Write the structure tokens for this entry.
Amino acid sequence: MFMKLLNLIIILFFPFVMIGIIRKTKAFWGGRKGASIFQPLYDFIKLMKKDFVISKTTSAVFRITPIISISSVLFAALFVPLSDGRALINIPAGLIVFAYILGLGKFFSLIGAMDTGSSFEGMGASREASFTSIVEPAFFIIIASIMAMSGNYTFDSLSKIISNSGDYGILIIIFTVISLFLMILIEGCRVPVDDPATHLELTMIHEVMILDNSAADLALISWGAGIKMLLISSLIAAVIIPHNIGTGYYALGYTLTILAISLLIGTVESATARIRMSHVFEFIFIMSSFALVVLSLVVAKMFGG
């Protein structure tokens, strides 16, 4: 019961802490003090109290998009191992449900942006769809390969890589962690061209899609983006933390992993120069390349290399 309550607190509040740590890290590397790590939570509460401003050109699709967006990530969180290393819903088809529930939220985010009738937001939706079409196959390849190697088609197999892969284990873990970290950057609008702190057209991907959202709608969308980063970070934690170390130690390792990933994201954003939009696909294809490496290692382990 305690661990379920802890997982609930993590889902509700850790996304704000992650974003706050990322901003604090960027401020540190920029020579500034920066706001409190709890500032995203304060902003969320402030937005929830504000009144809506909705364009007359929008339809019901635009109005239901924030609800579906946040509902999809909260439902997807039920299939991911959190602080106790176990998912609340642990079924063999968990990977497929997880990916397609997030895909449903992404779909409504795209059509919600296009529903505004703004060519600017349509541009952002087009870019987001292009990136997602590359990321999702790579994600499937990585997780499905690990599951096939263990014969356990649930997310529990992520924490058993070492025991199932022998000498290939360390390499599989390294490439899996790097790939999932790149996925956080891409899905969390942290690509080295997308700057969530500006409204400059040439650097906007995700942020341009929510320019017409306000008040609680904007708060829910921002919260959902934070939860998505937390869920992918939780998969990284499941990969690098052994499954048999005990619940207490796993929870400690999980917390430290989430904090370390937040610091690393802020550091990468501060240290990486913005690249041209035409080169973003090259950056994203790195994840696909590593996914194929993981697949090759798994095949070598299962059938001999």
Summary: The two ends are 45 Å apart (CA to CA). The chain has a mean pLDDT of 85.
